[in-house]
Amino acid sequence: MITKKIGTVILSGALVVSALPSPYLLKADASSLAGTNLVNTTISSKAQTGDSASSKDLENMINTVKSKITIPSDLSEFSYNYNSGSSYTDSTWNLTWANKDSSKSIYINCDSKGRIQSYNYNTNQSYKPVYLQGELKDKADAFIKGISPDIYNKLQYTDASARSSYNGTYSYQYQRMENGIPMPDNTVTVGVNYQTGEVTSYTVNWLYDVSIPSSEVKITKEDAASRIGKNIKMTLSYQSAYNKDSNGKSTVKAFLVYSPDKSYISVDAVTGKIYDTQNLWTDLYGNEKAGFAADSKADGSGLTPQEAAEVDNIKGLITKENAIKAVKGNGKLLFDKNMTSVTANLYKNDSSNGSSGYVWGISFSDPREEKTGKGDSYRAHANATVDAKTGKILSYYSSTNNYYNSATGKWESPKVKYTSKQGKGILEGFLKEQIPEYFKNSTYSGAADDYIIAYKDSKPVYGGYSYNYQRVNEKIPYAANNIIGSVDGVTGKIYSFGYNWDENVTFEAPDNIISAEKAFDSYIANEGYRLVYEIYYKNSVTNAKADASYTQTPLVRLVYRTDITPNYISPFNGKQLDSDGKEYTKTTNLYSYTDIDNNSSARNIKLLANMGIGFEGGLFKPSQAITAEELTDFINKAGFYADSKNKLSGSTINRMEAAKYAVKLLGLEKAAKISGIYSMNITDQATINQSDIGYAAIAYGLKLLTPNSNNQLHAGDNLTRQEAADLIVAMLNTQE
């Protein structure tokens, strides 16, 4: 049930006698927004600073901000925070003004020059939809222009959306333009309250004082596309779509896609150079290091049939002692003998694909007191999960010794005895024992050096290796499933292992697929491949040790870039696919309809559409009966949620059923059940069941239901789509 408070309720035409118990009397809210006069503010909280900032600096910053933003006079409580920044970030000021009880506040973040980076005005109210998105864009424009005219003159409006019914705002997005070319890495977002029309938030991501290259290009878009095609590979893989069948059981479909093997690639529009990163790192050795990232989702009678099934499930489970022994007794795992403190819990592991089983979750730790002063501070710990049926280890992780002596402040010098190749062999031997079928259906996809255990001649010495294996079907990788493992190079023991593996997957057959070249032609033709100014960062490090000095220089270049989303291409017809494997259709944040002009509910329909609540296809069909499922979906999207006791069902729903449902969601069920106190100024009250009179009266008073021109409520008629829109907007209008 929604937790927002209900504001003033006027039960016009519905008589509520004075005998109504006080808990049900609804009190009007007399609060209003404060005036907009500037206020002389006294600093009432202590600053928290990195490097010092003088009182004069603070005074200047306050005056700079107040020259751009009007602070309401009741926000008299002021506090601030100063962050001195770093070698590659600017210093920032956080200024906050609040009223006495902190129910209203303005928070502003700005840089050292007083340029506002973010603004938030919090009032804890105003959720009623009054304005349409198109009616408030001018407010957003004016706010940007008022606090940063130099930014405003370089902006292109891109989109608008409703954040959610909970914060009551429309969000307006803009991108930077230079020389008529988009610079999408710089953006501005403004939030405007759709009840009051006030700006409640502003966020800018902007690179100031940077040189913008000429807009002249020497490489054509077609030439750049050809260069991209030669430097990326369209890889064929399986992606997963999770659904539920009619019985609520989860199913997994693995669908085939082509997608680029690089998440980022661009071509310099002047030189034709290929870029595969926006970050250029230079260290004192002049080399770069690349690794892989693997996403581990390891796991970690008198009885009812369900109870009996659970009893059967736990028959034959291994004991806690045997589960612990399975881990401690496996000689291939890194296990510190001092980890004598052990806890174990048996639990049912329900996976997202609907399968389940019992698992032992085990934690090991070294209980000895740390002796930091003697250089004996390392205390090992580990976690494992063990299949309670088979005794197989499902996942394992152990801490590793960093070989740093805290007493001497020096690195010890352990010998790395095992190479990455040897570690791979050790891990694969373990995988063949623990998960032979999974390992057989996977392929090695990469390795990376892991943790640092020392420095030699200022160069890092790595103590471990991490490996990734991708699941395959007919030699095609399945992106959702993989196996990971890590091996310690000093001991040759496995300190990390886990896997994510879907059962009962339906794999799409790779028959009659197009070539990778044709897939690329389809991919590059999609929206998102364009000429842009992009920001890139030149980073450097002067020392590889713990006291390293970093510098970061932002620069701008003119490139052809592939901002194509989603980047899945069907291997059967070359069409763009969404994350469920369906043909991608570009969605907008606004629903629009061609059949609501001159409809009496048109504005309410548009208000909901602006909040992201509506029907696809361009037709609202206002006079069509709404289904219970559609109404529930709309009400949920508006921010009202029912508990398990209050659910709608059936293909259609009548007006009385909808009214009762809404009244319950608003928390007024107890008031509605009081008998003998309600009367309505309608002509068909006699047709309403006596037990429903309270619900009908409250719904009538709140305008959840409105009578027709004959002053009849027609409670038994099917609720139409336009009436549903009126009902939901009326529900939102009760909120404060």
TrEMBL record:
Residues 1-19 form the signal peptide. InterPro entries: YcdB/YcdC_rep_domain (IPR032599). It comes from the Bacteria. Residues 60-206 form the YcdB/YcdC repeated domain. Keywords: Signal. It holds the Pfam family DUF4901. This is S-layer homology domain-containing protein. It comes from Anaerocolumna jejuensis DSM 15929.
